[in-house]
Amino acid sequence: MNELAQRKYFGSLYIIIAFLAMLVLLNSINRYYGHDEFEHVHSSWYIENGQAPYRDFFQNHHPLLWVALLPFLKIFGHAIGTLVVLRIFIVIFSFGIAVLVYRLAVFTTRSREVGLYSVILLLSMVMFVKKGIEIRPDIPQVFFGLLSVYYLIRFLERKTPFTFLVLSGLSASLSFLFLQKTVFLIIAFVLIFFLKASQKLFSLKHFAIFTGSLLLPILAFLGYLVSTNSLQDYILTNWMMHIFHMRSFSPGNVLLSSLLMNTAFWILFILSCWTILIKKRGFYELDVISIIGIVLFLTTFLVKHPYEQYYVFPVTLISIANANLINGLFSRYKLQRKRKTAILLAILVIPVVIISAMIFNSNQSQKRRINYVLENTVCSDYIYDGDIQFNVFRKDLHFFWYSIGNQGLKTYNKITDGKFADYDACRLIKSKKPKFISDFQLDLEGCGLAKMYKPTVFKHLFEKIDSD
């Protein structure tokens, strides 16, 4: 491939990446909000109002995202525009993930081409795009987790000081403080440490340095929990409830759906597993990447509810292994630039159509509903919204303000011998007289609320009738 043709080819790869990035950004601005997003914004609002998570309001996630969102709530206020800003904030992390994937791919394969293929595969992965735009802790968790992997790879190259091992531990700790799923990354790291130790390339001293760096921020978090008298509630809500949760499902449906949308990606994954793990070869940096990705993928079969976001982390690392395989196949068959481009575009057709269609699942009606509630309430008003569809910046009726209908409350009561067994949305509404209510898990007629609340133009949203 001559120099001019090579420049044109790389230029075409950059154009593809720019196009995919534009689709991600358009999805961020226009696609509908999942109610998990409102949950996390509302949790940040709780903290802004002096409430301690786990002690004062129910949550079963780690808190670093809510802390990170606080400056935006302070600057932009409790308004619809803030949700748009927060989406952009999260997308910056997603693009940061793409940059880290590129850096990891180039560092482990010494190929800029593989790096660009990796980003193309990642940004065309429908699951990644769907979750990569949402205001949820999974995205910064994956970003800092990948950063930890990157620093670990740099250290394992044996040409860098202990600084990179320290940075790896600190990054993994930040990842954990965003979301406890990082324990699966730690499990993968322990496996890597053991394999490297067997080659006399990793020692107890290295393990101690990494572990010490990992524990420092976590100990600070532990201190916060103790100082706010939240430790027991944290253990209950963030660990015991996940372990004993009464609801579970198989990852089969999620994976089947993804297979239909990104068929080539998963076929390449199977082939890359064979190429990297089965063939006899040395244990190189790319193998480390692949092993971590495979471990993270396999751990999704251990959790009780493996939603799509559980696959975001493994998908980032699998993209690198898949890209390396594609590059190897292109080289083996000595394909020219035009054929390479054609194959890449063929792989992208179905995912791009799906990602483009997602843009038109607009969030405008959700914004109008939330804005209607905000315009017709004041900060002191109560809201009942058991499914987190419209109450983002107002008070709730109970410690349990979500996870009412998905067995969360039942699991909590089972563990605590019925601490909130007397939870009754009907009674709470009659007592606190919220300005707006939802009919989620609530029969207005049977509860005697039909004469107190009138339907609004928005589905499942009812407004208190003025008694004056």
Structure, explained:
The protein is an all-alpha fold and about 475 residues long. The protein folds into two domains: about 5-360, no CATH class; about 365-465, no CATH class. Helices cover about 65% and strands about 5% of the residues. The protein is built from 20 helices and four strands. It has helices at about 5-30, 35-50, 65-75, 80-110, 110-125, 125-130, 140-155, 165-180, 180-200, 205-225, 230-245, 250-260, 265-280, 285-300, 310-330, 335-360, 365-375, 410-415, 425-430, 445; strands at about 385, 435-440, 455, 460-465. A four-stranded mixed beta sheet has the order 1-2-4-3, with no helix packed on it. A hairpin with a 5-residue loop joins strand 3 (about 455) and strand 4. Helix 4 packs across helix 15 and helix 8 runs antiparallel to helix 9. It is globular, with a radius of gyration of 24 Å. The model has no long low-confidence stretch (mean pLDDT about 95).
